[in-house]
Design brief:
α1 (about 1-15) crosses α10 (about 325-365). The chain is an alpha+beta fold and about 800 residues long. It starts with a helix and ends with a helix. The chain is about 50% helix and about 15% strand. The protein has three domains: about 1-45 and about 275-450 and about 670-799, no CATH class; about 55-270, no CATH class; about 470-655, no CATH class. The chain contains 25 helices and 21 strands. The strands form three sheets. The protein has a six-stranded mixed beta barrel with strand order 2-3-8-5-7-6. It is a multi-pass membrane protein. This is ABC transporter permease. It comes from Terrimonas ginsenosidimutans.
Length: about 800
Amino acid sequence: MLRNYLKIAFRNLMRRKLFSLINILGLSVGIAFSLLIGVYIIQEKQVNADLKNPDQQFIVKSDWKVKEMGLDITTVAPLPKAMKEEYPHLVSNYYRFNPVTNVVSAGDKHFKENIAIGDTTLVSMYGFPLLHGNTEQAFRDNNSAVITESMAIKLFGKTDVLNERISIAATTGEQQDYLVSAVMKDISKNSVTGLFGETYSVFVPTIGNRYYPGGDPAVSWQSIYEIGLLELRPGVTPASMEKPFEQVLAKYADETTRANLTVKLAPVRDYYLKDNNNAVNRVIVTLSLVALFIISMAVINFININIGTSTYRLKEIGLRKVFGGARSQLVMQYLTEAMVLTLISGFLSVIFYEALRPFFSQVLQTSLLPCWQFSWVQIGFFVLLLLAVGLLAGIYPALVLSAVRISKAVKGKMDDSRGGMILRKSLLVVQFSLAILVFICGLTISSQVSYIFNKDLGYNKEQVLIVTAFPKQWDSTGVGRMMAVREGLKQVPSVKAASLTFEIPDRKPPNAASLQGEGMDQPVLIPALNVDENFGKTLGLNLSAGTFFNDKGAHIPGQVVINESAAKAFGWTAETAIGKTLKLPPSNVLTVKGVVKDFNYSSFNEEIGPLAFFHIEDALSYRFFAIKVVGDDMTAAINSVKSKWKELLPNAPFDYFFMDDKFASLYASELRLKKATSLATVLNLFIVFMGVFGIISFTIARRNREIAVRKVLGADIKSILLLFIKEYAWLILLANVIAWPLAYWFAHQWLQQYVYRVQQNLTPFFVAGLSVFGIAVVLIGLLSMKPATSNPVRNLRAE
């Protein structure tokens, strides 16, 4: 029986090649897009799945009553260790680390690397696989280092490097030596070694570490900038840890910390998805909906075309029923045909997947697996997708056509109550509505992204080269050396300005200063940046009043620059703020030297707030050189700066990026979404109009006699074209009525995540509606032109 079903299925596919091609092409595109998005989502969902006991792992986060008191991602340094010691029946393990970036050397090789200074529980707690070393005791002592496979090859050209010596530059100006005790396999993306989107390649113990002048930062209860992670005992929930956290803080922390800090536990398992204001989850949900819309379009095309062309097979159905064919057999016949067509489409979709995979990998900023490397999860998803599409595409036409009464079927007519024109037009309205909905949302996303990249940020990010300042020696000697390097870089002809700074405008500064203005009873916590007097000029900050420190001469201690929001927080205007004093505990008094206009120093998700600038020679800490370069040849400018750098700092790596690239990285998810929705809009319209092409084609073929009669009775080409255009124009109008409110709601919800956003207007709605209408009119006109201009006598004779 199955063989007979398959034989009839292939015969019908070959008999109506045009409609079969439309169905196959539409389903292939829909399945390929869904497969691409599905593989991407599966890969994103599997981040952290390779960790040991990920469901029991948690990141210790801080909820401060006054947000400027600390970071939410860090915790009081000794807290995780104290929780394990005080509550061993609740906590099975802990890991803390301090993420730093500095020069790692082996012999005459020097590289800028991300380093994690942390506890020695790293490997055993998370089960990271080792190529070399003891998994139970990866760190032999406090002078041991664990490095990644890639780092071993970079430093030594091989992976078996146990007991090889490496050295790490410290902010004290010294080099601390370590012996490699383990080499870790390069591991996949996770929320432990890749918590901030960075990959750490060197891991060293925090005990005995001399990186910071003040010693081990994991010891002091006043240290609140340590990353902390806990592994809870099976069955222990985050809620059951609330009281223990309060008790430990009450026992060890100071009064200010106890009064303002609430400890929260964030699951490691889904932290990657929920981090950065649910950025990855939002992309996943949006792309899932888009993929669902596209595959729905293809399925609707199949249903529409199958029911529309069903009159060609009604007599076959009638005869089969007359000769005793059961309805279940007819249903199986049509389902078999649908599955055959879906399997052919599935084969083509794999080809499309491989062809589009590099492009989608670039758009989604990931590496999508080739189909031959699919895991059982991806294979299962693909098989289920094919089965679902085949079933959904075939079940309705099968039930409708198999239910036609014998008396109607043998005459080649379909029951008026089933299928027919109303169903086809309803499905077309659904398709047009979805296409317009995706189109409008895509235009809104594109508009917001353009707004972000074109808005006046209050500073100039163009042609600003950011070079990591090495070596990091955070004392007066180290700062003095870097200031001399800054002056040397300014001698390069292509360098317009150069500045030594601790921060660049890519985040809200993590450090805050408690500043008390004249006449104020209480201090105000203000986020603070450590910069030099050239910072404003280099980044093009606009001054409202005063000067940016002493920008015409030598450094004058005790000066501060604030922004307009900070002046307002102190109850001043920009003009009245100049010369005012601010008290900084314990006994420092600072004079306001200048007020800069507010600028976007963080993402558009956060409102611009108060900001204070301390001079780098007072703060004695730095991380970057910001260098304003001029000229059209950026490659030559970079090479000139690099050459000067090697002359000034021969043993320091030249690691750089451009400020505009860094700015773009803040909105990576938005850029991915913009590209994906733009492509989805094109695919949506392609599938919709392929379906319209198929439906109009067989509609016109069935109405050739009617057109011929109209022409004989005097109808001209224009009236015949308008006849078909009007028939579909009201469907598009109805689709707009349905899609516009839905699109407004979706776009409104998406825009709410931004403090600074575009205002919705009618432009995207009219653009989408008129574009769909215009394309439909052109397509209908082209298809109607042939019968409208053909000889009516020939058509009547054929009838």
